[in-house]
Design goal:
mainly alpha, flat
Length: 127
């Protein structure tokens, strides 16, 4: 494998790993990292690109980005609820005044980002 492909494949794996962690930690952005990893896989390995595009967990991120459909409303709501539950839990565990402020600022920024994402419009069934 040529060095350029090794670089992009390694970067894709790293971005996907951090993006996967971001699915659990509200401070890391999942969607841009998953999309960036798909780009890197596209530059390095068509097999890896197909895998991530068809992946049960990450495939929808890629598909929604490529088709510009947006994010489903329920995903936005679940993301916001999970974000704030984790931030509040972190505040209670750390119990540090400056951390409250930092986590509130991060929470507001991430919430704004989530709310500003295009919301997927469900197509009504024609009966």
């Amino acid at each position: 494998m040529e060095p350029k492909r090794v670089f992009f494949f390694s970067l894709g794996v790293t971005l996907l790993g951090v993006g996967a962690i971001g699915a659990v930690l509200p401070v890391l952005p999942t969607t841009p990292l998953v999309i960036a990893s798909a780009f890197c896989f596209g530059k390095s390995s068509k097999r890896a690109e197909r895998w991530i595009s068809r992946n049960r967990y990450f495939g929808s991120y890629i598909n929604n980005y490529k088709t510009k459909k947006g994010v489903p409303q329920d995903v936005k709501l679940k993301s916001l609820v999970f974000l704030w539950v984790m931030l509040i839990a972190s505040m209670l565990i750390a119990n540090q005044g400056y951390l409250y402020i930092l986590l509130m600022v991060v929470g507001m920024g991430v919430s704004a980002h989530i709310l500003l994402l295009k919301t997927m419009v469900k197509e009504e069934d024609n009966l």
